[in-house]
From TrEMBL:
Residues spanning the membrane: 36-59, 79-102, 139-154, 159-178, 224-246, 258-279, 299-320, 340-359, 365-389
Region of interest (Disordered), residue spans: 1-22
Domain DUF418 stretches: 251-407
Record's keyword terms, sorted: Membrane, Transmembrane, Transmembrane helix
Taxonomic placement: Bacteria, Pseudomonadati, Myxococcota, Myxococcia, Myxococcales
Name this protein carries in UniProt: DUF418 domain-containing protein
Comp. bias (Polar residues): 1-14
InterPro entries xrefs: Bact_Transport_Assoc (IPR052529), DUF418 (IPR007349)
Pfam family, one: DUF418
Organism in which the protein naturally occurs: Pendulispora brunnea
Amino acid sequence: MTTTPVDENWTMESSPARGTRATPVTKASRIEDMDIIRGMALFGVLTMNLAMAFRVPFMGNPWEMPKELLERTVFRLELIVLAGRAMTLFSILFGIGLAIFLERASARGPGAMWLLARRLLFLTAFGLVHVFLIWNGDILTSYSLAGLIALLFIRQPTWVVLLAAGGFFLWHVIGHFWPWALAVTDHNVPGHYEESLRVYGTSGYWDIVRFRAPEFLRMEMPGFLFLLPDELTKMLLGVAIWRSGILRLEVREKYRKTLRWTAVLGIVYGIAYPMYRWVHFEIYHSPRVPPGTWQKLLLNWHAMNIACALGYGAALLLLLRHTTWRRRLGIFAPLGRMAFTNYLTQSIVFTTLFYGYGFGLLGKFGLAFTALIGIAFYIFQGIVSAVWLRHFRFGPFEWVWRSLTYGQLQPLRRAAVEV
């Protein structure tokens, strides 16, 4: 499923008549590296959402291994390379955005925490509309609620932030060993998958809305709350990463060795074991699960997601040190700048494609063909985002969110302000 990240770019300006007020930053102040990484992560989010939540019902998906070799290969590659990794990277970027927003707001005077809380509350409203009226694979609500909890730690010293991140991680990992954890995260309710396939694939819009609301409250909400510590871990890591200065290009050189080791160890740890299980399955046709508690802790899926996401991010930061790679990867920046709009647009377009009130194609496409659809649509969104940002400062949903945050309409057209 996905995230939309907070847009961290803003500044303040003073007016003798109105005093000091919050306004967005100019283009020159944007952190392009974050836009590029966010835009690339958006592809992973879209791919996994298409594989597991748009083309088949999100709740009750049996996750059966496909029988065809091509389908099975696509399934495994998506799980190993993208599943959980892209969303984790988005959550870390969200935490970085919170830290940047608060740091720059605080430098201009009081009220920064309230402005950030207001921003998150409006994101909660977006999320609730999204989950009940558009698609139940929403991550906006979990991001906003986890972000509000993260505000309790965001002004603490970095060691406290890291300690809290570690505590939330242990809370989440150990929680999986509690008997009730399986009950709140197991979506394989007998008969529900078949019923949801029928309703989402053949019913009208309001019938789907009526079906989805109790489904979310009864089946998804407990798991949603269970996963909050995991989201908090990633967001607080993002806060600590921003404070380290490692994202600032002018000081990145001294972190080269750290970034290299993070990239190598993170990606190897995150991918090696899932790759081993894939090969083992193809040879012996049965999964091999670590038998002991320590093995389960060491090879915890959430730990591998975090390590792999950090590895991806470190590798990209290393590449972005070079002008050639920055120019090549810069095509992803518009997608990242409009990630909120692109995320919501994906929900609208693909629910229309797969649900009964649209084209009714739910459950009728394989993984390989669906992946091709995702690639094509991602390229389309990249083109639209680049063209849009030539004329406008923000994506349409970013503009609405920013205007609500600052309590006044923000200038949208590029000609309206110097950017």
